[in-house]
Amino acid sequence: MPQDARLERLLDFLRRSPTPWHATANMAERLEAAGFRRLEETEAWQLSPGERVYVTRNDSSIIALQLPSEPLDALRMIGAHTDSPGLRLKPHAPQTAAGWLQLGVEVYGGALLAPWFDRDLGLAGRVHVRHADGRLEGVLLNVDRPLAIVPSLAIHLDREANNGRAMNAQTEMPPVFLQGGEHADLDRLLRGWLAEQHGLEGVEVVDFELALYDVQPPSRVGVEGELIASARLDNLLSCFIGLEALLESDGRQGAVLVANDHEEVGSASACGAQGPFLGDVLRRVNAALGEAGEEGFIRLVQASRMISCDNAHALHPNFRDKHDAAHGPAVNGGPVIKVNANQRYATNSATSALFRDLCRQAEVPVQTFVTRADMGCGSTIGPITATELGVPTLDVGVPQWAMHSIRETSGARDVEYLTRVLTTFIERESL
């Protein structure tokens, strides 16, 4: 079945994307296989109507553009983010205690820490090396086997462990890595893995950005396989669905897929949604194909629409009281429109009406999420992109459980639902 083939592609993408750099590289690989041409920001751009191109920044954010054959007058934009909460290595990571080499870590984003204990952890990220000729190069590393673990303390030694005890990220989260490794050289280990994976010999490790991750592969769960369980569903699921929709669309309309890094830490970076990446790219595209000047750019933006895709909180069967009684999205119940009166989400009635109409056209059910009035509300790239660019925007997402855990859960049918709606959005003639 087509849906099963899509889910297999999803599981493969999740497995091969342990970090934002890997996710971006994997998306770029699929784009190139589909005929998209890579652009470099440091070079002059020559663009033609009907062309399909993409560009990356920091190797961790990516923008893909489908340029219309007709004059460029509007863009159908889909936004997502490549990063997920987790544990990142500190620059001077090795530390020792009780005869063990451990790795000092920083918590990236709002990670749910308890599920990180007693997991088989691999190591992945970006490493910059210096070659013998002095040339610097950044390369991806993915050691996808169990290298480390954060062992729990036995309940016999902590009788309050099940009573909501706070965890100290500095003292309790460093994983054990190597027994008797007081004099172990992390750089030597990195060089060995780089030699294995890239054939790099005689290089010097200059710097790195590395993260720990759960090596348990993603899977279908449930008697009928109705669930997807994996790390980093927030928000690689949206990256995958947006990419599937773009590649399945008929190619007639102008479309943009942007996947930013650093959403989980506020988006304030050169490649984050609060940075200039999307605006830079769209200005260059408009200068090449659209109405020249700032007025032409503003007209293009205001004629366009952005659907910000980031997963939504599904109604949890064990914690139903955490939802507003009228706004508890069901897993496999269709995409969720996310609403917040205080603009934590960018949805308004006009953009929501457009999405509801798209769901009607695609014959897909649609749901709505509003947080309880006595609880805080998270946010997404939607309000940030709308603020930076001015484009009319709404926030939607696939419902999921255990957001920001090391392993999250969402519905298998929702993958197909949102893909169909976003494909309909990209192909829609009028916005």
TrEMBL record:
Kindly list the residue ranges recorded as spanning the membrane.
none
Organism, scientific name: Halomonas elongata (strain ATCC 33173 / DSM 2581 / NBRC 15536 / NCIMB 2198 / 1H9)
Give the protein name, as stated in the record: M18 family aminopeptidase
MF terms (GO), sorted A to Z:
aminopeptidase activity; metallopeptidase activity; zinc ion binding
InterPro entries, sorted: Peptidase_M18, Peptidase_M18_dom2
Question: Entry's PANTHER family?
Answer: ASPARTYL AMINOPEPTIDASE
Keyword entries, A-Z: Aminopeptidase, Hydrolase, Metal-binding, Metalloprotease, Protease, Zinc
The EC designation for this entry is 3.4.11.-
Q: What is the lineage of its organism?
A: Bacteria, Pseudomonadati, Pseudomonadota, Gammaproteobacteria, Oceanospirillales
* Similarity annotation: Belongs to the peptidase M18 family.
Keyword Protease appears in the UniProt entry: yes
Which GO annotations describe the biological process of this protein? proteolysis
Listed GO CC annotations = cytoplasm
Where on the tree of life does the source sit, at the highest rank? Bacteria
Could you say which cofactors this protein requires? Zn(2+)
